[in-house]
Protein 1
Amino acid sequence: MVRRRGCLITLEGPEGSGKSTHSRWLASRLRRAGYRVTLVNDPGSTRLGQSLRRLLLHTQVSLSPLAEALLFIGGRVELVQQRIVPVLTQGHVVICDRFHDATVVYQGFGGGVDVRWLDRLGRQAIGGVMPSLTVLLDVPTKIGFGRLRRAHDRMEQKAATFHRRVRRGYLTLARQQPRRFVIVDASQPMGHVRRNMESAVLSAIKRSNSQGCSAT
């Protein structure tokens, strides 16, 4: 496991949870508070990640859940090595839009790949670089999809039963790992969601202050 001075904060959630919008807001909020912040997407924040994002989300190539999982993990290895570890060692707060848990939930709980095996493989592949905090923006499947104007990518186009399994998977992980996860009800008004999210993130940063993540 990498020795790090910074904090890795991940945002997870089912479709329509507002995760990407909230992650950008959170990064901006922390920068205004004086923290050095790096915002990344998984996949998408490396050259390999951009290529994988197009393949995995924006084409109609037929892939098994196992093939999807292995490709996501491969892209995450590059993301950790190229974008996350270098800035963690400099004391940055890293905000990551999706991470390891997304693969466990989407391809494991949702797609039927063995969850325990997938969790072990994913953690080993990224050298044990796991979040200090994972904010789960939870929203019921019907409400989440009601927020989407249309199904933009392959994951969003999957059946409602798949997405209900995804949500149950996220909630299962949160129950199993209560010290890492905080659940925020993303069906509430935006201001309420952001206040709860900000409070949880600032608490996590304070707990990590002895290792870095200090304001400039």
Protein 2
Amino acid sequence: MKEELQKAGIVPVIKLKELDKAVRLAEALRAGGIHCAEITFRAEGAEKVIRTMTEAFPDMLVGAGTVLSVEEAEKAAEAGAKFIVSPGFDEEVVDFALEKGLLPLPGCVTPTEIQRARKKGLSIVKFFPASQFGGIKTIKALSAPFSTLRFMPTGGISLDNLEEYLQADCVIACGGSFMVKEQLISENRWEEITEISKKATEIAERVRGEK
């Protein structure tokens, strides 16, 4: 799972209200070179979107985001989610994910939260909201004492700063909604989603190729 996340490099954070657009959105992302998606529980019926995408494209790395409870984690797991993302560190959600063989990605922005994650055996955490908590500078500072830890920054990621984040060895992948903004989805602007995804993929491949 960690290798898949590393390979993906970019994790679209998707809030999708219309289930009938799930397959078309996945197609648009895949056409742009992105084969990963985080479906957030900020929209009702997120588990249905997860199930629809995983059934249509079994090779996609599809996970659940904004998971705030074990109940939501259960829905995500039953729908076929492969990873569970939370905005903060919730021990019960982390334990549930580990028990089910899923990858937990809890939000950790302080040394104390990171140490709690490490005690659970985690080697990857989400860093959210990235820009508000100091961005890549803070992540690099935290990686000094926690040298074996990898981060998935989310929040404020865009085409303008994606390269800066991915260049850091401590960053395994970046989460972002810049290629799947609600307006793009609501207006069925699939080609635009594909084009933005292509640009993001090109950045990720170039940076990873240079390392």
Protein 3
Amino acid sequence: MSNSSKYEIITLDGPSGAGKSTIAKLVAKRLSFKYLDTGAMYRAVTLYMIKHDINIDDKVEIISALNNLNINFDNDGRIYLDTEDVSEAIRSIEVVNLVSKVSSITEVRQNMVSLQRKIAEDGNYVIDGRDIGSVVFPNAKYKFYMDASLDERAKRRHNEELSKGKNLTYEEVKESIRKRDEFDSNRKDSPLVVPENAYIIDTTSMTIDDVVKKITDVVLNIKSNS
């Protein structure tokens, strides 16, 4: 188990649509940390499974696929499968609808947790996901859990999809998030939980700037008192 003692780790966990990625990037910039999008990593694995017709119910096929998987990030945070930039492709509805099932597979989670810990060895990171403070870096000094009402999260995600020109209804987006919540909270391996000692932030009525300030204030306060 990594104790994240060499470098400082800020973890942001929470359900889909809580704004984790947006906030994590801004907090990282504000504090001069690096940013690691673990959700993108799981979506990249899912995209790989789809593109290569991997039977996700076949353990042998999954392990073989993971051995051939090569995920990288560039300096701008774009994600690659081998040399292919898949930053946009991993946001497809096909990937979104399957990522919960793929990310619940024990072998996939073990592979990704190992990769996340390895990446974080080379500097201070803000890392967002669903099990970062509870499983990947349980001893991180700065742990946060971001949440918001289902309606608010659906509204944010729907607006995001519309801005990308995707023709999805609000109800479709809301139902997709509701299903994701249920699946993530009830999976056997690393379910979505509030990490021990995490600072809980309900972002429902908060602006992005409010949330970023809240997190950076907490981090700087802990720093000044440690």
